[in-house]
Amino acid sequence: MMKMTNKAAQWLVAITSFACINSAFALDSNNLNLNATNPTFPSSGTLNQSQTPPNETLSAGSFNKENRNNLLLPGEVDVRQLLPSSGEELPPPYAANIFAGGYETERADGLNDNYLVAAGDKINIWLWGAVNYSNVATVDNQGNIFIPEVGPIHVLGTKASQINELVTKKIKHVYTTKVNVYVNLLTATPVSVFLSGPVIRPGQYAGMASDSILYFLKRAGGIDSERGSYREIQVLRNGKIITNVDLYDFMQSGVMPKVSFKDGDVILVTPQKAAITVSGGARNPFRFELENSSELGEKLAVYAKPLAKVSHVGVVGNRIDGPFSRYMTYQDFLRFELRDGDKVIFNDDLHAQVIDVQVSGSYLGPSYFAVTKGTKLHVLLNNIPIDPMLADYQSIYILRDSVAKKQKEMIDESLNRL
């Protein structure tokens, strides 16, 4: 009896251990987001042949590469706790939708005509004719590649479009006749770029020298919409500014400076400039940055694009002598000086000066007339031709939509009381 109990206990331990292993493996598989389903174990304890073992699955790289969807890893902090909001409800800044796409996952091979050769790049070299030679040379730390009988050739900083000409010229100094040369840049070496200033996740990011500034900014989570400038983004190299980027130029006309990045370059987002909030009748009701501390309204109108019906503009803000509120015509607004924190409301405040009149019944001629506001009825009637034998011009009715609507409301209200 005791032996049966021990044996049963051994089976129980074995089954429990197996269940724990199976459960733990399923948990690990979920955490890794494996594309393959969790392997099942038959009674013999061997892997199902139709399933891929987990170690082979990982080594093959067949795991899910989707975004983590804001899932925090151990040790990470929610960025929303580090970048608190001012609490004021503001419209999004103009050009913020640049960072709404997923283009940071669309990668090129990094090679283009303006790419500058860097240490670690690989260059394919062919020689044929009197001499046959082929090799994939790696640019060393001194910026050279080595070719037997020719020696070192300095290629560091050479444009990709000029590498064939440079290397061929050096080879031709040694093999002067009956030798053909072809040189091709195979791979580009990644660079490490720092992002600083009001960005969501400042730090160090890897990319290709040919990647755009937008790529690196998107990798860092984009610009902090409450603190960062979309109008002055600096690229620094050895502490000096090599280019400035204004994303408004990119949004308006597609202008984006071309930069060939190098290791250690810094992309610095400067603090946000004077900002104006736009609402009302505008195609672009966003928060806009001013290039200077103050700008005329006509400069803002270029970006806000007010609707054609806008006649008046309200401006609310603060000045040295305290808060102010101004209501003016659109033409006066174009010459009005705007400052940081102003709120602009575009408004359609002109009443229609033309009345549309439709004619029905027994008449001749057109059925539609446009008359200026204040036109008398008899003036309009004098312009409507009729046949006196068919039309009773002594019995004329004026029907107005607003009156019909009001009458319907009164009738419905009377019916509801019944």
Which descriptors apply to this entry?
single chain; about 425 residues; alpha+beta; five-stranded mixed sheet; disordered N terminus
What does this molecule look like?
The chain has helices at 2-32, 54-59, 79-82, 163-172, 213-219, 247-253, 297-304, 330-333, 377-381, 401-417; strands at 122-129, 133-138, 144-147, 151-154, 179-187, 191-196, 203-207, 228-237, 240-245, 266-271, 275-280, 287-289, 294-296, 312-319, 322-329, 337-339, 343-347, 354-358, 368-372. It has 418 residues and is an alpha+beta fold. The strands form 6 sheets. It has a 5-stranded mixed β-sheet, with helices on one face. A hairpin with a 2-residue loop joins β14 and β15 (322-329).
Describe the SSE topology.
Elements: H1 2-32, H2 54-59, H3 79-82, E1 122-129, E2 133-138, E3 144-147, E4 151-154, H4 163-172, E5 179-187, E6 191-196, E7 203-207, H5 213-219, E8 228-237, E9 240-245, H6 247-253, E10 266-271, E11 275-280, E12 287-289, E13 294-296, H7 297-304, E14 312-319, E15 322-329, H8 330-333, E16 337-339, E17 343-347, E18 354-358, E19 368-372, H9 377-381, H10 401-417
Parallel strand pairs: 6-10, 11-17
Antiparallel strand pairs: 1-2, 1-5, 3-4, 6-7, 8-9, 8-10, 11-12, 13-16, 14-15, 14-17, 18-19
Helix tally equals 10
Helix content: 10-25%
Shape: elongated
What is the N-to-C order of secondary-structure elements (H for helix, E for strand)?
Answer: HHHEEEEHEEEHEEHEEEEHEEHEEEEHH
Radius of gyration: 37 Å
Structure summary, number of beta strands: 19
* Strand content bin: 25-35%
SS-based class: alpha+beta
- State the separation between the terminal residues, measured CA to CA: 92 Å
For the largest beta-sheet, the strand count, sense and barrel status come to: 5 strands, mixed
Query: Order of strands across the biggest sheet?
Result: 7-6-10-8-9
Q: Give the low-pLDDT segments.
A: 1-66
| Mean pLDDT across every amino acid position | 79
